[in-house]
Design a protein that fits this description.
- By secondary structure, the protein is of the alpha+beta class.
- It has two domains: 4-109, Phosphorylase Kinase, domain 1 (2-Layer Sandwich), CATH 3.30.200; 123-322, Aminoglycoside phosphotransferase (APH), C-terminal lobe (Aminoglycoside 3'-phosphotransferase, Chain: A, domain 2, Alpha-Beta Complex).
- The protein has ten helices and ten strands.
- The strands form three sheets. Strands 1, 2, 3, 4, 5 and 6 form a six-stranded antiparallel beta sheet that branches. The chain has a two-stranded antiparallel ribbon with strand order 7-10. It has a two-stranded antiparallel sheet with strand order 8-9.
- Helix 5 crosses helix 10 (300-322).
Length: 328
């Protein structure tokens, strides 16, 4: 579990590396994988965001690789992404030591806009999300990775396989013997369908890996895509699984999926075979989030949704199995 006091101390140490005045103030705004702070400098009226990276999650080279993709998306694909704030010496990834432990910090310019309302979701929001996702995928497929580029993979091994990055779904909140039996059968079917689908370059590449409405900031006609911290190599369609994170069991899922697919097809092709795999990526992500909640009790999502998440997952599982993995 993250140590809020330690993150605060790291953030304040990092501030000294930037061109802020002595009166600069910080306020925690998000605590999940990382601690994210609003930075306000009353002397200069300058604002920004400081991301204090979770210890031992990404090496500095991996974080710099993320920033390189953000640069390329802005300049080559016309997608609005966060702009890093360099330190005085030009570094974009600040590495420092606190209590004998290495930590990484990145500053970003403030982005205008508000998140789409996840309570009163308009299918048009998912259409926008689908078209944005297709634009990111189109760029990813043609982009030549810079030398030394490194990000981790969201493949089978690191999602639900032998080395799950977020832990085992079997250790999630509310998971007992009956849930293990049911969700175990789902995990097997997900694996089988992914094996048949394959991971060639037309289906597997660099993705955002958390491309949901909560990671869009809408400012008039401008839609900013934020929070690339989990970007890495996975199936392109995994991004749809992430689009409905925590709301997969909502009865409006089919309507949202149709809108997302329509938006995607405005930009590039999505075959019938691809569309029939979307339910599998939703279940893949759902089981990953069951695991994630087991180790992220501090998160807002866990506190709000944790108690009923296992039961909702089992309802989805029954429908997924009954359809042979083709729908929810």
């Amino acid at each position: 579990m993250p140590d809020h006091d330690t993150d605060d101390a790291v953030a304040r140490l990092a501030l000294a590396e930037y061109d802020f005045s002595a009166g600069v103030e910080i306020r925690l705004i998000t605590l999940s994988e990382n601690a994210t702070y609003l930075v306000a400098d009353p002397t200069t009226d300058r604002t920004g965001v400081l991301r204090v990276h979770r210890e031992n999650y990404h090496p500095a080279a991996s974080i710099e690789s993320e920033l390189l993709w953000l640069d390329a998306l802005r300049t080559e694909a016309g997608i609005d992404t966060p702009v890093p704030i360099p330190a005085r010496d030009g570094r974009r990834v600040i590495t420092l030591t606190h209590d004998g432990r290495e930590r990484h910090v990145v500053g970003f310019e403030m982005i205008a806009g508000v998140e789409p309302d996840e309570v009163a979701i308009d299918p048009a929001d998912f259409r926008t999300l689908g078209s944005l996702t297709a634009r990111l995928h189109a760029h990813s497929r043609r982009w030549v990775l810079p030398e030394g580029f490194q990000r981790f993979s969201w493949d089978w091994k690191h999602t639900l396989g032998a080395s799950p990055r977020w832990g085992r779904w079997q250790d999630g909140i509310g998971i007992g013997a009956a849930e293990i039996d049911l969700l175990g059968r789902v995990s097997t079917l997900v694996h089988q369908r992914l094996e048949r689908f394959g991971s060639g370059p037309d289906r597997f590449g660099l993705v955002h890996a958390d491309l949901r409405l909560a990671n869009l900031l809408v400012d008039g006609d401008q839609v900013n895509v934020i929070d690339f911290d989990d970007c890495g190599f996975s199936w392109f369609l995994y991004d749809f699984g992430t689009a409905v994170s925590f709301i997969e069991d909502d009865p409006r899922l089919a309507e949202w999926q149709a809108a997302w697919v329509a938006g995607y097809r405005e930009i590039t092709d999505l075959s019938v075979e691809d569309e029939e795999m979307l339910a599998t990526f939703v279940m893949l992500r759902r089981l990953m989030l069951v695991a994630w909640m087991g180790s992220h009790s501090h998160s807002r999502e866990c506190q709000e949704k944790g108690p009923g998440y296992a039961a909702g997952s089992c309802e989805l599982a029954e429908r997924y199995l009954a359809s042979g993995g083709r729908s929810l």
